[in-house]
Amino acid sequence: MRRKKISFVRLKQEKLCIKGLEELEAKPISSPYDIKDLMMPFFKDLDREMMLVLGLDTKNKPTVISVISIGTLNQATVSTREIFKTLLLANSIRFIIIHNHPSGDTTPSENDLKFTRKIKEVGELMEVYLLDSIIYGDDLRSLRANDWRGISIGRI
User: Fold this and answer.
1) Which of 111, 130, 148, 156 would bridge 120 by S-S if both were Cys, CB 3.0 to 4.6 A apart?
2) DSSP readout, 31-66?
3) Domains of the chain listed by start with CATH number
């Protein structure tokens, strides 16, 4: 019986180039307010939903910012597996997920709440902990604050 040699092919992900990001500094994230300036280049003037994951190290400094999904006007299909692949490869211990609502209304949908609960539970199993889930619109809303319904943390 002949043994076949199995080889793995590593595919490179395409990278998005966003003007101004070359000057980002890896400052520690200590509150949702720190997210506002960091995320603005990604979400400014978008006409569709997009989700990012921000991986953090033990000192809450960013290890990775990755586009997880680009969707339609009112939804983005997200794979839990893609989020954690990115986080594990970047050696992140904590993370924040951020998505936008193109309408500007940052009120979380039922799907936003379900997804946040799910991703938190999966993260705990994998020992990569969700610090926050942020909705970006006319203001910034933190879903971890104030019992999942979130609080608006200010106009953008």
Assistant:
1) 130
2) STHHHHHHHHHHHTT-SS-EEEEEEE-TTS-EEEEE
3) 30-140 (3.40.140.10)
